[in-house]
């Protein structure tokens, strides 16, 4: 039976969207270094299932592997945060240690065992002995920290790691990024994490050196991504300053979306240049004191995902680190464990369920569909004839209607999943009309509607 929804109904039209969505991911810094070393193997496997397995957990299929610089052992005390002391593979010039970083390596391999499909390598800092300050935490004044004579050596270091992982483990990094938030001025010596500032001219130099090093080693399956700035606006500013040779050295544009408003402008530039575009890092801890049931981070996460998919239209959406340090006493991350102890104990945060509202149901290969509503996003998976709609409601409870006249839904089965202060991915059934549905949204909630056996009435 058809239903008259009125002018306020949200229409979903298959033609209004974009193809090529590759999936959801996480960086492995710094949690991979910690969790990969857990002696409690059962707990470790359990947690890895929760992050990467599509049936048992979030089904994240993209991993960003951090090629550590490795801190100067003579700096005591080491200022790096728990987990942040990612081992480097070249503890001194001319010396290689391929046994280093066992924890993060184990997690990456376990991710692929569970269905991961794409790996990217990235660097936060060159090895300490290549730096001006003698530390991977940054320059004394927050300026450039890679010594002038080491640009080629740094590129060689990164590509040597890429080559090793391909030959020793069969992991081919699709992209390699030598930069992380490079224009930011907070990378100063004594910082609690690895970081390196690169002015725009030095960004161009290391990008070109990295691309050349990959080519010289015959690593054609790996291309360069950049610049991974903290802000969308900074990413756009850097790209506008790159010369043609630098742009030609890039296959993929990476941006973080912590701040900035020029999402559409960055998308258009990527399209104009013919570059793949990733949202390569975002994370949030909300606005409340440390609490695993914090709802503010749930709503911030959902709003960010929906905004990014609407405006930036990335082919991948990657969270910072899926597992966070409980001792940090914040609300970042999907799972919390104390990085200082490594005993295998952990707790899920409510943000875990917020991520599940998207990642469990909008799978790689889906077509992202726009809804005409800034608070919701949709996706269609033609391979399994599934339509997914995710809505974030930051206000009071309200009723919402979706007009699906563009779909054939006579035999459609529909389920609803909800995360709110009361619920964690709670499942219920949904009654359908032949042209859509009406749904009551709880206040302060994220709601996912999954419609199976649904087809387009006409081709896109």
Notes on the protein architecture:
This protein folds into two domains: 93 residues, Golgi alpha-mannosidase II (Immunoglobulin-like); 261 residues, TIM Barrel, CATH 3.20.20.80. α4 packs across α5, α6 runs parallel beside α8 and α9 packs parallel to α10. The mean pLDDT is 96. It has 460 residues and is of the alpha/beta class. The longest helix is centred in the middle third of the chain and has 19 residues. Helices cover 26% and strands 25% of the residues.
Topology:
Blueprint: E1 10-11, E2 17-18, E3 23-27, H1 31-35, H2 41-52, E4 62-67, H3 102-113, E5 118-123, H4 151-169, E6 175-177, H5 200-216, E7 223-231, H6 232-241, H7 244-249, E8 250-259, H8 263-273, E9 276-282, H9 296-312, E10 316-321, E11 323-325, E12 335-337, E13 347-348, H10 350-359, E14 367-369, E15 376-381, E16 386-393, E17 398-403, E18 407-408, E19 413-419, E20 426-429, E21 436-441, E22 445-452, E23 455-456
Parallel strand pairs: 1-17, 3-4, 3-10, 4-5, 5-6, 6-7, 7-8, 8-9, 9-10, 11-12
Antiparallel strand pairs: 2-14, 12-13, 14-15, 15-16, 16-22, 17-21, 18-23, 19-20, 19-22
